[in-house]
Design brief:
Structural class: alpha/beta
Radius of gyration: 27 Å
Number of strands: 10
Distance between the termini: 94 Å
Low-confidence stretches: 1-8
Strand content: 5-15%
Largest sheet: 8 strands, parallel
Mean pLDDT: 91
Order of helices and strands: HEHEHEHEEHEEHHEHEHEHH
């Protein structure tokens, strides 16, 4: 006897409406269990990185104007921390050094991109490590310094595995980690194409240049994110390869907003390089060590080509620039 109250006595005819109600509730519950939950939006995070600081004069701005605009537009877009990979051997006087200091004062961080920007595949490993040491000597102890090294040209030795492994070991001995990239759309190419066009006296459609530039960078981010999901089963915190260029100074705010419109969140470089994908950076083994980490992991895991964004084909990029920015006739197919 659990002192349970007796069930109320149902009035005659009540089952005529109660039974259908109960059956309907049971059917609704069964349908709810069978119906999958609506898909959740995919989380996509990306950090901004700028190579080759400090660069020389560009297509449209003085060096000082470029730094001021880049800092201002990053701040206006809400980017609290990007990373600038520095070539100390390219610093030409106090003004160049002051520009690096200005990036750090604005909250950004700096890391090693070698002193003189050599190709590893064309440089003896010992000489290459000495060049890294020269850059690190300039960087060490400076505010904002991070112990990351980015290979110039993303050249990690290409087919020379002995050279590749010697430099990997040397970086580990120095406490430097690979400042890899996962997204690359050859942003440097459009800066160079614009600079050549200005030198040749050609009329540049600035709006078309802006649109082409934003489109390629966002398309590359989407492409490499899908490639990463295929290879490691998730979206890592990405790092996009940009350069300290006039185009980035002018367009970085719009690039950030275009990425956000596609569902991307801009995060710090510190957050990006804490992602577990960083553990793969020093160990992948491909026939040729070069390019983005995303591409090399896909190659190592046997994904067929293409494993890189099509806009990195500079012949295609030149065609886009010529037809869209310079409004030249479309070349006839061979």
């Amino acid at each position: 006897n659990h002192n349970l109250s007796p069930l109320p006595e149902l009035k005659p005819g009540a089952m005529r409406w109660l039974l259908p109600l109960l059956l309907g509730l049971l059917a609704a519950c069964a349908h709810a269990e069978d119906t999958p939950a609506p898909p959740q939006p995919l989380e996509k995070r990306i950090a901004l990185s700028f190579d080759d600081a400090p660069r020389g004069a560009g297509a449209f701005l003085t060096k000082e104007e470029r730094t001021r605009q880049l800092i201002a537009n990053l701040a206006e877009a809400g980017v609290d921390q990007a990373v600038f990979f520095v070539n100390p051997g390219q610093i030409d006087g106090a003004d160049d050094e002051a520009r690096i200091v200005a990036y750090v004062a604005a909250g950004h961080v700096i890391a090693n991109h070698s002193a003189s920007h050599p190709h590893l595949s064309q440089t003896d490993a010992a000489a290459y490590l000495a060049d890294i040491d020269a850059a690190e000597e300039w960087l060490r102890g400076r505010k904002g310094h991070r112990a990351w090294f980015r290979y110039p040209y993303l050249d990690e030795g290409q087919q020379d595995k002995a050279r590749r492994d010697a430099v990997r070991e040397g970086l580990a001995q120095r406490g430097l980690s690979n400042g890899y990239v996962t997204v690359d759309a050859s942003d440097w190419f459009y800066e160079g194409a614009a600079k050549r066009a200005v030198a040749e006296g050609r009329e540049i459609d600035r709006q078309a240049l802006h649109d082409l530039y934003i489109e390629t960078q966002v398309d590359a981010a989407e492409y490499y994110d899908q490639l990463a999901r295929q290879t490691i089963g998730r979206s890592p915190v990405h790092v996009i390869l940009l350069h300290e260029t006039d185009l980035n100074a002018m367009f970085i705010g719009d690039l950030v907003r275009a990425l956000q419109a596609k569902g991307w969140t801009i995060v710090s470089a510190d957050e990006a390089y804490a992602d577990p994908i960083a553990d793969l950076a020093p160990v992948y083994d491909t026939p040729s060590a070069q390019g983005s980490l995303t591409e090399m992991i896909a190659w190592e895991k046997g994904l067929p080509a293409p494993r890189w964004y099509r806009g990195n084909d500079t012949r295609l990029a030149q065609q886009w620039f010529d037809t869209r920015v310079l409004h030249l006739p479309t070349p006839e197919a061979d």
